[in-house]
Design a protein that fits this description.
With 228 residues, the protein is α/β, with parallel strands linked by helices. The protein has a single domain, classed as Aminopeptidase. 31% of the residues lie in helices and 15% in strands. It contains six helices and six strands; from the N terminus they run E-H-H-E-H-E-E-H-E-H-E-H. It has a six-stranded mixed beta sheet with strand order 2-1-3-6-4-5, sandwiched between helices. The mean pLDDT is 97.
Length: 228
Amino acid sequence: MRWPLLISVPHAGLMIPEEVKDLCALTHDEIVADSDVCASHIYAFESVVTSYITTNIARAFVDVNRSEEDREPDGVVKVNTCYGVPVYREPPSEDVLETLLERYYRPYHRRLTALSKDAKFGLDCHTMAAIGPPIASDAGIERPHICLSNASRTCPQVLFEALATCFESVFGEAPAVNAPFKGGYIIRTHAAELPWVQVELSRASFISKSEKYGKVLEAVELFCKTIL
């Protein structure tokens, strides 16, 4: 049996797009630091859900959880990482930026729309730095172990509260709600297609990577069994 969920894991990739390899100024470790470390393992639910989507392109180069029009330093095609490290030795041309969007960004969102037809609920899944990075509104502050967010509108409140209860039951602690994250571009944009919640798990070693995988899966299955 597959649970009627669409799982999105947008920041697990580590690859440099071919179009900007010659311009890249980042080391491998800097690319990893700007990505959702361990997300590909913690949310490896392909075999138990209706639909699953991820990308192998690193967030430092194309961030599918931003608006296409967001050209800020931490926007859709970044200038600096979340730790303030320059991404490029020289800025990509407008033609290269357009190519990045057309090859890596737009297909992700078209696929989300297509996959939503087969699911009842969407989870946009991330890991977060244990301490807020310099670019964040909570810079230097220790983050909660779990954060669930719905931007106050991407999911009916009764479903949102039920999911939070399931996470609390499994993890033994209540998740933070809409803080430090309120919900990003993916859930805000695709909420017209089905209910969405953003899930963030701290990279702090409060439990092992395998335990994080097992507990998130248990919480999600409990939610599906009792609510969906």
